[in-house]
Amino acid sequence: MGWLLPPQFCQDIEVRDADIDDFGHVNNVVYLGWMARVAWAASKSVGFDFARYESLDCGFVVTRHEIDYRRAAMPGDTVAVATWIARNDGRLRLRRRFQMVAHKTGETLAFGLTDFACMKLSNGRACRMPDVFANGYAVDAKAEAAFTAALE
Length: 152
Known about the structure:
Layout: E1 9-14, H1 28-45, H2 50-56, E2 58-69, E3 78-88, E4 93-102, E5 108-120, H3 131-136, H4 143-150
Antiparallel strand pairs: 1-3, 2-5, 3-4, 4-5
């Protein structure tokens, strides 16, 4: 696969018939769904499922999504969606970067990012992230620079 750097987490996704639009390729909004699905799976893989969020009365909400499309995913494709924690300020904000690669060709289909803010579940207000988030969502020190360079 043509990864920018070794993934912190990766999940394969099969393109479904429902993902295909009138242009005959995966609809643009589907990539956003893949990012959300993989972000949540990556969080669970490091011990942060929703039950853990509830026990901490704290979780992350999206403040921004961005996707840069390179090639279309097609019917029958399998797409590897990888993610990295590119920023974690240890207080309020977290950034995930994504790279989506076609299994057949190894070509990058899209790059994405999602910015998150820490929120108290009981009142819906921003809050300081607990130390377990500051430490448990470990930053890949090379990720932000690698993605910035790839997108220039």
